[in-house]
Write a structure and sequence with these properties.
single chain, 296 residues, alpha/beta, Rossmann fold, eight-stranded mixed β-sheet, three-stranded antiparallel β-sheet, 11 strands, 35% helix, 20% strand, Pimeloyl-ACP methyl ester carboxylesterase, AB_hydrolase_1, AB_hydrolase_fold
Length: 296
């Protein structure tokens, strides 16, 4: 297991052409390339697939895992337009292209935070590509709140959201990777992260230019992901028609699905004791066990 933790994944790309613009989605490919993909795992807003290497690499001894970089993140080369976004239909459609590229049996579809919600939205459109779903603290507000977020009035208020304002203030350029590591270590969302995971995040989270290192996910794009909330995860939960296991944080969760959601008998919800929204980083064993159990 320790050797697997150090495994470097292969890097592949999947072509994407939809109404949001054409390009290539970068994908990390863990495990035996001769076997079909067992698990697709999608990262959270502002991060990238490589962030989760220490979570996913230990699974590669038994499973083949694809971990894509969403539009505007990591190594994916896809156009971004923060202005006018209302929801995550762009991420949904990009992931549909990824699911359409799978040529084996249905796979487990999973993700963290925004990635969990985005893969849920895609699975609702391609349920035949999913065997089941594992959602790690997905962004799903209450049904009432989600309906309010779809009102046009919310578009004018979105920039007042603390997460949006925080993202827009985020430092976007560093002199070196070492400077970025020092700036993030033990602070904010990165508090308590293992150094190895933070280094993995920065490996694909920074783009080298002639004189500096810039965030691969521009602050304006990260902010637009927080602001664009007009998608419908509750409708997707109803339509997907596959077993869905939700693990939500005990503290600061972005998931407001109750333990026994009305009208959704295929959805199970568990709370990760002492877990925060970043439990996949801080309690990787809990997240990894859930992914493995779903795929075997």
């Amino acid at each position: 297991m320790d050797a697997l933790r150090l495994t470097q994944p292969r890097r592949i790309t999947v072509p994407v052409a939809n109404r949001w613009g054409e390009g290539e989605m970068a994908v990390l490919d863990f495990g035996d390339p001769k076997r079909p993909v067992d698990l697709v795992f999608v990262h959270a807003n502002g991060f990238n697939a490589m962030t989760y290497r220490s979570l996913l690499a230990p699974l590669s001894g038994a499973l083949r895992v694809w971990a894509p970089d969403l539009r505007g993140h990591g190594a994916s080369v896809l156009p971004v337009e923060p202005r006018g976004r209302r929801g995550w239909s762009d991420h949904r459609d990009d992931l549909i292209a990824l699911l359409d590229a799978l040529d084996g049996p249905p796979a487990v579809l999973a993700g963290h935070s925004m990635g969990a919600t985005a893969v849920l939205l895609a699975a609702a459109e391609r349920p035949e590509r999913a065997s089941r779903l594992v959602l790690l603290d997905p962004v799903i507000w209450t049904r009432w709140s989600q309906a309010m977020l779809r009102l046009p009035l919310f578009d004018r208020m979105a920039r007042r959201i603390p997460l949006v304002r925080g993202a827009l203030r985020r430092r976007a350029v560093f002199d070196s990777r070492e400077q970025a590591l020092a700036a993030y270590r033990g602070r904010g969302a990165f508090r308590g992260w293992p150094d190895a995971m933070l280094v993995d995040y920065l490996s694909d989270g920074l783009v080298e230019t002639e004189a500096s290192f810039a965030l691969a996910c521009p602050p304006e794009w990260e902010a637009s992901n927080y602001a664009a909330q007009a998608h419908d995860p509750w409708g997707a939960l109803k339509r997907v028609g596959r077993p869905v296991r939700i693990l939500k944080a005990a503290h600061g969760s972005t998931c407001h699905v109750p333990e026994r959601p009305h009208g959704l008998p295929h959805v199970s919800v568990e709370t990760v004791a002492d877990g925060t929204h970043f439990f996949p980083m801080l309690h990787a064993d809990v997240a990894r066990d859930a992914l493995f159990d779903a795929a075997v």
